[in-house]
Write a structure and sequence with these properties.
Elements (H helix, E strand, L loop, with lengths): L2 E19 L2 E15 L3 E6 L12 H18 L5 H8 L6 H19 L3 H5 L5 E3 L1 E4 L5 H14 L3 E5 L6 H11 L5 E4 L9 H5 L9 E2 L7 H10 L4 E3 L6 H9 L5 E4 L1 H4 L2 H14 L2 E4 L6 H10 L32 E3 L12 H7 E8 L1
Parallel strand pairs: 5-6, 6-7, 7-8, 8-9, 9-10, 10-11
Antiparallel strand pairs: 1-2, 1-13, 2-3, 4-12
Helix pairs in contact: 1-3, 2-3, 5-6, 9-11
The protein binds 2-succinylbenzoate (OSB) and magnesium ion.
Magnesium ion (MG) binds next to loops.
Length: about 375
């Protein structure tokens, strides 16, 4: 496939409600989209880097910079290309998995649109829809939290994930478990906010029958996670620590994790994300699809990935209206707790070009 050029487009979108985690609160997203243009199709990719490097080292201005300075010139120099070769061409440049993943996704979308194949069929999806969980931020009070969780449950979400941090953990978790009962699938995510020395404190969460605790310790503390796993009965799930299929295999071998949250942006693309899925399946480790508050562009690909057979737990693949009043694609909706895997060519979603133009804050064209 011969690429003519790539558009870097920045859009600004307000979130329907502030989203607070242990690393800070977000009210508005500044998102980088890539549009790959070829002679007979175009493809879109969403870069999941946030405005600031508070989840991982990447941030949106840095992603745009590394793309225009190194990654796009490398792909342009490689000549005709298809998605499976992108990671290899970009391998000399260390890091920047979110920038790389966005480029690979856009190339894959263009390639699959030209071939008339959907992301789901290409990746190996085995179901028409996927169960959806919802990630609930840190709230100003337990009462506000209970109201938010109640609202999501009445919409039909099949699993609740509560963001926790020191000072916002046992009390909100206890309150949600007491209010909504033992049948609720409940889990927590600390985004690295604790130290292994907090193990005794964290073990108090065992009383609430949680499905898992996500990334309690710093991303480079695999040994700490293995130690914590021996000190509490709640399964440990890694997010930030898992940056490749190899690191997934290492974490599993060390006993640092018994569940994995896969985010394609964090591991450098959908093809590496599929390899993480394969490593988990081979080890009998459950895997689920995480999220980074994506628009419909990134969400379409995530939902396709989440339909692979090893994804045995509900993901953070919520409906569009959990994030945005108006999405940039046909919105993803919740139907009996599930979102539908698109079946059209490529991402299989229509982009609302008028809305996209209205919320665009900058466009750059890189000719190949
Ligand atoms: O840790 O999973 C996380 C959002 C932004 C950054 C990190 C995380 C999250 C979420 C929200 O939990 C997941 C989603 O609904 O997209
Ligand atoms: Mg997480």
């Amino acid at each position: 496939m011969k690429i003519t050029g790539v558009e870097l487009r920045r859009i600004g979108l307000p979130l329907v409600a502030p989203f607070e985690t242990s690393f800070g609160a977000q009210t508005h997203r500044d998102i980088l989209l890539l549009r790959v243009v070829t002679a007979d199709s175009e493809g879109w990719g969403e870069c999941v880097a946030m405005s600031e490097p508070v989840y991982s080292p990447e941030y949106v201005d840095g992603a745009a910079d590394v793309l225009r300075r190194f990654l796009l010139p490398a792909v342009a120099a490689a000549g005709p290309i298809t998605a499976p070769l992108i990671a290899e061409v970009l391998a000399p440049y260390h890091g920047h998995p979110m920038a790389k993943a966005a480029l690979e996704a856009a190339v894959l979308d263009a390639q699959l649109k030209a071939a008339g194949v959907s992301f789901g069929d290409y990746l190996g999806a085995v179901k028409p829809s996927v169960p959806a969980g919802v990630s609930v931020g840190i709230m100003p009070s337990v009462d506000v939290l209970l109201e938010a969780v109640g609202g999501y449950l009445s919409e039909g979400y099949v699993r609740i994930k509560l963001k926790i941090k020191p000072g916002w953990d046992l009390e909100p978790v206890r309150a949600v478990r007491e209010r909504f009962g033992d049948d609720l699938i409940l889990q927590v995510d600390a985004n690295t906010a604790y130290e292994v020395g907090d193990a005794r404190h964290l073990a108090q969460l065992d009383a609430f029958n949680l499905a898992l605790i996500e990334q309690p310790l710093p991303e480079d503390d695999l040994r700490g996670h293995a130690e914590l796993a021996r000190m509490m009965s709640t399964p440990i799930c890694l997010d930030e620590s898992i940056t490749s299929a190899r690191s997934a295999a290492d974490a599993i071998a060390m006993g640092a994790t018994s569940v994995i949250n896969v985010k394609p942006g964090r591991v450098g693309g959908y093809l590496e994300a599929r390899r993480v899925h394969d490593v988990c399946a081979a080890n009998g480790v459950a895997v689920w699809c995480g999220g980074m508050l994506e628009t419909g562009i990134g969400r379409a690909a995530n939902v396709a990935l989440a339909a692979l057979p090893g994804f045995t737990l509900p993901g953070d693949t919520s409906a569009s209206n959990r994030y945005y009043a108006r999405d940039v694609t046909t919105p993803f909706v919740l139907e009996r707790g599930h979102v539908t895997v698109p079946t059209g060519p490529g991402l299989g979603v229509d982009i609302d070009r008028d809305w996209l133009d209205e919320i665009t804050t900058g466009v750059e064209w890189v000719a190949f």
